[in-house]
From TrEMBL:
Protein origin, superkingdom: Bacteria
InterPro entries found in the cross-reference section: Nuclease_put_TT1808, Restrct_endonuc-II-like, Uma2
Upper taxonomic lineage: Bacteria, Bacillati, Cyanobacteriota, Cyanophyceae, Oscillatoriophycideae
Domain Putative restriction endonuclease: start-end pairs: 14-179
Keywords: Endonuclease, Hydrolase, Nuclease
SUPFAM superfamilies reported in the protein's UniProt record: Restriction endonuclease-like
Organism this protein belongs to: Floridaenema fluviatile BLCC-F154
Protein's UniProt keywords contain Protease: no
GO terms, molecular function: endonuclease activity
Transmembrane segments: none
Presence of keyword Translocase: no
Protein name (Swiss-Prot/TrEMBL): Uma2 family endonuclease
Amino acid sequence: MNNDLQTQKLLTFETFFTQYGNNPRYELADGELVDMEPTGLHETVSGKLATQIGIAITAEKLPWFIPRTCLIRPFTDVATARRSDIVVLDQTVLANEPLWQREPVITLGRSIKIVVEVVSTNWETDYARKVEEYAIFGIPEYWIVDYLGLGGVAFIGKPKQPTVTVCQLIEEDYTQQLFRLSEAFAQRSVSRIVSHLLKNLQLRLDDILPR
């Protein structure tokens, strides 16, 4: 009985998109609705970071842009839809996206250059499952922005502190480089967050923290 009830609660991607496609609060994982619980501070960090990434894209004259809203559907055979905080798309390949002309849904990994997740209370998903999903999907660069230092010690070290983890896709796996707030304050000359795709990005962790 309980199993039947659980099964009935699962959503298909199509049902999720119809009911929650325009609601930035929710994403879908294996048919289960996920409340991302955004806060004002979360949106502050996301907004500051999107602005800086946009400036870098413009300065380097890249054919990329950050959509206002976008769903990532990494696997057509699994009812999963990710709503990343920032997605950088390559407009030169969007003509190959089967849904993009009608709906803001990305189904091809090569359409995405960078994806950013700003960590909230469900940090385990950002540090574990999404690392695997985005690597399989073939996204070249994935940022995990943990502005409150919520992640486990295994991910951000000890003592726990605000940390940005930049994951670069090498073959089929991500290599990770961590940028911590304390290091930024101690060594400002080397505190710039390094993106392998945005070479001229001028950004420190303390630039995007809420005041």
